[in-house]
Specification:
The chain is mainly α. It contains four helices and two strands. The structure holds a DNA duplex.
Length: 85
DNA sequence: ATAATGACGTGAT
DNA sequence: AATCACGCCATTA
């Protein structure tokens, strides 16, 4: 858990509230445009509250999964942050 | 060190 | 629209 993981965390932690990013984008920003799969894996094991992993969604617009309450909680949080009801 | 896994993505069926 | 299969990569077992 070094370079990539660290970069991913950094990028994700920089996602502003009320905004979302796709795994692909994160991977690209992290320097590994094709490692979107790994991004998910890393985030899935990431329990750091400093990293708003719930801001990361799929490219197809799907919510994706979440290790802290499931997609439900994730969608809920996003809905909340975005100020939408 | 090697094999399996998964919070993905895209194209094909 | 839904499902299937394959690719891609770091992490984990």
């Amino acid at each position: 858990m070094n370079d990539f993981t660290n970069r991913v965390r950094e990028v994700v932690s920089r996602i502003p509230r009320g905004k979302t990013m796709t795994y692909k984008e994160v991977a690209r920003q992290a320097g590994r445009p094709l490692a979107h799969r790994a991004v998910g894996n890393i985030l899935s094991k990431n329990y750091d509250s400093k990293v708003p992993c719930h801001r990361v969604i799929r490219s197809d617009g799907q919510i994706g999964n979440y290790n802290r309450g499931g997609a439900e909680q994730k969608a809920k949080l996003l809905r909340l942050e975005q100020g939408l009801k």
